[in-house]
Each structure stands twice: as structure tokens, then as C-alpha cells.
Amino acid sequence: MHAKDFREALLQNAIFAALPAGHFETLLRSSKVIDYAPGDKILHEGEASEHLFALIAGVVGVFYSSASGENVLVKIFGAPSVFGEMELVFKQPRQEYVEAFESATVVRFLAAPFMEAMQSSKEACYIAFTDVSARLCIAAYHERALAFLDASTRLAGLLLSFAEAYGEACDFAGEKDGVRLKIKLTNDMLARCLACNTRSIERAMKDWRNEGWIKKERGFLAFKTLGALEERADPERLALFSTLERNPHAEK
After folding, report:
1. Terminus-to-terminus CA distance in the chain, angstroms?
2. CA distance 146 to 196
């Protein structure tokens, strides 16, 4: 990506747009633009926290994993967004891994220039504070959901989050309110996102297909209406997907 293009992409992010020009320019000098393919790992659990990452194109997922190899999806970031800042502040190793769901472009910054830049702007700090607060609320909700909600309820909520990130209008059996996902989701991937077994996903999908409101076309899931998913999801759910241009929970 050309330097001018990634500079303009960064300024679509509310945090960077709030920084004084001089600090923004200093921050740019510590940056590196990196492209990732679908499935690439951007962060790894346990590695040293030496950088902040700004997503300027694409969508990524944030996962926690267990010692036994189980994984659970806790956040979906779309561009523009930032991640990796919490461990920088607390000087902790990475607590999660981040995986590209599609081709993604990330700007990586050294920790010290980013922290200095943030200290220069109360507005940028407040934007980051509200963003992190929302993400902590989402993480707390999904911990509760993992403990107390069944797999099909959590699956409906997960598919709604993917619809918010990847949904497009489609015709579904003559109905005009259909929604198709622009990303291919296998049952194995959905099971990994929910930290459950594939049989639970297959069982829910079979029941829903028999009810006639979900189908798969050339590997892409489609829904007759999102209302069918909403009826089966937790009514108090917090969406996994957000960007720094759009916080769905603040809009309510």
C-alpha cells in the first residue's frame, strides 16, 4: 500500500484522527504495513507485547485458547480498529491470538511512540477508553454465555455477528429479505469459534435447514431473514463485531 493511502486509511480511525499532527507524524515513522492472507495469525498468545496494531483493511477474529487446544472467539474486528493496546498498558504477554478471516492489512507500531502519542491527546485517550470498555463488556458477556447458554443459542448469536460483518442482501426462495454471508464458514470453524464439538453445530444446522430458513449456496450460508436468528439468539446478546467507526452497543 502506498504511504499516502495507508496514512489516509489510518485517519479513518477515530483514535489516530484525534492525535496532534506532530505526534501522528512521529508515530508513522515507527510504523510498518503488513498484509495477511486468510487464516494467518497476526498475534500469538504468550508472545511479548511490543507493538500496537491498527487494522486498515479486512476483518480479523480474536481468540482465546486453552492448554488442551480448545478455542473460543471473543471479538471480531473490522477496519478501522486497533488491537493489542491492553497488554501494552499492563506490560503483559499477549493474552489471545488474532487471526485474519479474510485478506487483511495491518499497520504495526512500536509501543513507546504509541504511548507517547496517546499521552498527548485527551480526546484520543477517551476514544480508546470507550472502545476498550465496550470490548471488556463484550468479553464478560461471552464468558457468561459460554457458561450458561446452550450451543445452538450461542451459534445463532455468532451467525448474527458474522452477518453484521459480512452480510449482504439476497433473494431467498422468492423472499426479498434474505441475507447471505460473504465468507465461507465450515461447521469445524464455527465449532472452533464457540469452543464446542462439531456435532452440536451439525445438529443445530440440520434442525434449522429442516425449518426452511437457512441454506448453504456454493459454501456460503444464507438466511431467509435475520429475524429467525434473532428469535433463537440470546435477547441480551452483545455483538462480537465492531469498528472504531461503529459501536453497535453505543448506538442503542
Report:
1. 36
2. 10
Which homologous superfamily is 3-146 in? Jelly Rolls (2.60.120.10)
Tell me the three cell numbers of residue 25: 507524524
Q: Are strands 214-217 and 220-223 parallel, antiparallel or unpaired?
A: antiparallel
**C-alpha–C-alpha distance, residues 131 and 241, integer Å:** 12
Locate CATH 2.60.120.10 in the chain. Answer: 3-146
DSSP-assigned beta bridge partners for residue 223 = 179, 214
Pick the CATH number of 150-233 from 3.30.1330.60, 2.60.40.2470, 3.40.50.620, 1.10.10.10: 1.10.10.10
Residues 121-157 pLDDT 10s: 999 999 999 999 998 899 889 889 999 999 999 999 9
Query: Each residue of 4-34: pLDDT tens digit?
Result: 688 899 999 999 999 999 999 999 999 999 9
**Are the beta carbons of 228 and 214 closer than 8 angstroms?**
yes
Q: Say if residue 195 is exposed, middle or buried (CB neighbours under 10 Å; 0-12, 13-18, 19+).
A: middle
How crowded is residue 152: how many other Cβ atoms within 10 Å of its Cβ? 19
